[in-house]
Amino acid sequence: MFSFIYLEGPRRRSIASGVAVAVSSMVPSHFAVAQADGAARAAGLEEIVVTAQRRQSTVQDVGAAISVLSADVIDRAQIRDTQDLPLLVPGIVVSRDIGLTTQIFVRGIGNNLLGVGAQNSVATYVDGVYLPNSVQVFQNFVDVERIEVLKGPQAVLYGRNATGGALLVQSAAPEFDSSVRGDVSVGNYGLLKGRITATGSLSDRVAARVSAQYSDRDGYSTNLANGRDQDFEEIRAVRGEILFQATDMLSVSFAGDYADIKAGEFKKAVNRDNWLYNLSSPDQFSPDPRGRFQQFDSSQPATDAGLRASINWSASWGDLTSVTSYRNFDVGPVFFDNDSVGEPFLLLGMPFQIAFIGSEIESKQWYHESFVATPSDSRLRAVAGFNLFKEDTTDFSNRWVGFSIARNDRELSADGYAVYADLMYDVVPSVTLIAGARYSRETKSYAQTTLDVQTNAPLAFAENRGTWSEVTPRFGIEYRPMETTLVYGTATQGFKSGGFNEANPLNKFDPEKIWAYEAGVKHDWSPRLRTNLSAFYYDYSDLQVQQIIIPDFTRLIRNAAAATIRGVDLEVVARPHDDLAVSLNLGYLDSKYGDFEVCIDLFGPCTIPGPDGGQILNPVSNVNVKGNQLANAPKLTGSITADYVLPVRPANGELRLHLNASYRSNMYFTPYETEIHKSDSYWLLGAELRYDSPAENWFVSAYGQNLSNELYETWIANVARFLGPADGAPRYVAWGAPRTYGLRAGFRF
Questions:
Q1: Which of 16, 322, 398, 534 has the fewest Cβ atoms within 10 Å of its own Cβ atom?
Q2: Which DSSP string do the residues of 141-159 spell out, in sequence order?
Q3: What is the residue extent of each domain of the chain?
Q4: pTM for the predicted model, two decimal places
């Protein structure tokens, strides 16, 4: 039977290693159904082992806010990719832009920067490998063991560009016990999805695991010009890993993965009274929110491939972990008609269009990290390590912007390294002091060659280079008044390096920094009830903010002055009955920009002629947004889940009902707090009804998400008026997935 193991004195609560491998969760974020013999369920909550502190720990033993999704939760809630995480993780917002560009915000920290010259403010790691760019962080989850969402700056252990937090994706490892499992799903919008995984021993010391996934889905939206689907998705993915257990203390693994993704984006100007429709002829507006006229179909193909070698060595002095990887990521050619009209229209006597017409990105990355964690049962515990990183990216941008085609070749080269150490010392058995620091240094060079549209001959060249470095510390204290209670407080500094405007290398922006103060308590009231509460305050400075200026679509990035964020996270998990498990997660944010003047070109042009013939800032449109809510920072987010298991007699199988509901209050996608950039609040409801056979070697289920068919925004562009007051601004949005449902059948032997 699975159970807690309490270690004496200052030792940490932990779980036996066999349990750590076998644990599976029924509901988020981190409690599981403990099983004694595969059928009977224990009366209590179970622990899940995480690696948020670079060592195996239980979630309840980590003095930080962490949301964890196990493989079982990911499966039952139909969490397919990065964009689905907000369904179960409060405080996180995920938006997807053109060409799979993904912007992740945690507790209001993130950015809306585009291009290879900038990165996310939330670091994404897959199997210990850092993913550098905002396109690659869009991950389809294939054979995942768990996902950890670390909230707040990760200054020391995951510090590279992690001012908002870190997303850790851990794939399932090879097992020596042989098994094969798979499932097939069919659903609305023509969904056909199949998955299969095989694992087992090749010898007494060698195990392997191979997983494959196929998914094909029609589009949620339509190009009204030709009737073809948009928002479609096709995925082919395979992953393999070989584990060499050289000795009981030393293991080496080699892994490779490949994914081929084909997707078609859909974004639309949804208001009739905007300049795109007013200036086009004939009328191109459709009241159907998921239908629009496009000159050509949307297409964003991508391939993502990587190799990884890992070493894990356990000794009396601690554990050594080393990860080395190479990844290659390609996107394109990207085609997307931005302007919601089916043909270029004449404006001022010239054809006008906004479109991607064959842009491509290729990124090659090399990453290495090694760290040592001293034994967790010692009074002084340390984690120390270093990492090295190199990325070379090429970006061929081919766009029709306004009256002409802009063609640019761009190259980014980034090199970085970091060294870090984190110490935990038990002053007395119940009190632990924490101190750590990371030194990060990163150098980027960025060049852009403007090409002739007819001959591809170079017309102009610009380049820039920047080096940024910082020491980011972490301080904290943990107090354990009893075995079932952890009280903690931390002060952490986060650092995100500078970069370059995608469209203009000479527009270099500086790093942004954050000081985060957090206090929390984790408490198990009984084997059936747990509550975790944290409160935080962020002092955020030098924010990297992007604007797009009409009418020439100039993109400008600069460092805003400051912002403050305060909030509370609450998690309650309970098992009121042996067969019923429920959880409640809430996140509250109060965010405010500091003294920051920005051009809101809804109100007019950003500049006007000055008295001396030059240009001056337009006082009507240049507005101080002090006190406004941060972009992508909803005040209230939450999720509720419930799982009920009903034995089926006389078959001795089990009928399982899973329900999940998520809520997000209204929020703004820009600093402006204007209605056109505001999304409404919404609830999303999901469910699965599943029958497991008595031996649990096959199952069938019916499932659905967004059961109420809510129409909700996942992205709103900053697009303003065009020429004057008569030219209304487009409310240009991307919608979340509509109601989806289907049937699934699976096996395991």
A1: 16
A2: --SEEEEEEEES---STT-
A3: 17-748
A4: 0.89
